Amino acid sequence: MKTxxxxxxxxxxxxxxxxxxxxxxxxxxxxxxxxxxxxxIADDVVYADTSDKETILKYAMEFKIDAILTDQTxxxxxxxxxxxxxxxxxxxxxxxxMIFSDKYSMxxxxxxxxxxxxxxxxxxxxxxxxxxxxxxxLPVVVKPTRNSGSRGVRKISTKTEIVxxxxxxxxxxxxxxxxxxxxxxxxxxxxDGFALEGKYINTDVGEKxxxxxxxxxxxxxxxxxxxxxELDDIERKVLETNRNLVERIGLPFGIxxxxxxxxxxxxxxxxxxxAARGGGVFLSSDLTPKASxxxxxxxxxxxxxxxxxxxxxxxxxxxGVAAWxxxxxxxxxxxxxxxxxxxxxxxxxxxxxxxxxxxxKRIVEIKxxxxxxxxILIEGDSKEDCKKTMSEVERTLKIxxxxxxxxxxxxx
Length: 412
Fold this sequence. Notes:
Elements: E1 3-7, H1 14-22, E2 26-31, H2 38-41, E3 44-47, H3 53-63, E4 67-69, H4 77-86, H5 94-101, H6 103-112, E5 120-123, H7 126-134, E6 140-144, E7 154-156, H8 162-171, E8 178-182, E9 186-196, E10 199-210, E11 219-226, H9 233-249, E12 253-263, E13 269-275, H10 283-292, H11 296-306, E14 321-327, E15 332-338, H12 340-344, E16 349-352, E17 362-363, E18 373-380, H13 383-396, E19 398-403, E20 406-409
Parallel strand pairs: 1-2, 1-4, 2-3
Antiparallel strand pairs: 5-8, 6-7, 6-8, 9-10, 9-12, 10-11, 11-14, 12-13, 14-18, 15-17, 15-19, 16-18, 19-20
Helix pairs in contact: 3-4, 4-5, 5-6, 7-8
């Protein structure tokens, strides 16, 4: 039995915890205090900020851990690398972890690797950021250098939006630092992949749709196709860009999740961001295996904990498609929930996540990913299959909110 420390105890870390437990390992879940499901299934619990690497190191040494891991959360990646490096465990290296966790550092590194990135600047104060934006042609995008879940990410199209958007970005920044970058007119793509023993493979490529929120980026749907599917020229170009970036950086092992934009203006692929961890909303744990047949969580845990290696270039892929779909609400209190059981029985639906919704729950205006609900997870043989299933889900699941006597349907 090995002792494995998992940073994070929310839903995104549950698959890692379960896999480790199934393999007979002792699991220590680390997270700030809260109602996190990982606490209920871990063998031991540590209440700590997962970005506090020195505190994590202290507990890791006390427990004499054999491995440390995290998934679907950016802030814990540097801590995992730092602790494993200090304790002589398998580590991607703290320096590389910081590159993959900091949007500014990654843009600098991507340029060095010959990957296209939007024209970008870093600002450490509101006044500096405003001055930079006023010197640029609008629209531009502002975002914190270290954060996730679309928090603080805003598109600025007019001068009247500058101050509010900059203030919001700084409020969500962990280190009082933001990026201002040129807006790229194009289509966004997602790519997931896996590195091991100096080799790297793309596992799937996805597309994303957003809620209609002025200037904000909150995704409502992501659909992923196996990297071995019949892809179009743009998807293949995105996959090639992603492989070139990860190989040139030299990630020794781990799951990657990246976002790119294909520009309609110059037909180039631009990096948005890339992280050295699995994608959220059950991507690395459920959707990647459903689409590609490759369970990167299993392979990563086997390598980090037990040193078990495989030749990733020889893995056998399936050619599937998987997706998640979320929804939001008009502000108010939930007053009806109908069709939950029927939704779970729709062919192609394999997971319905509505545990945090109940009659009387207060719903506030959506600002970032925290304001969306679900997801509903879907699989199929093709994108058309998944789209048909999504349409059936939208016809079946009915949740309403009420405020001041006005009843509103859920927003898909």
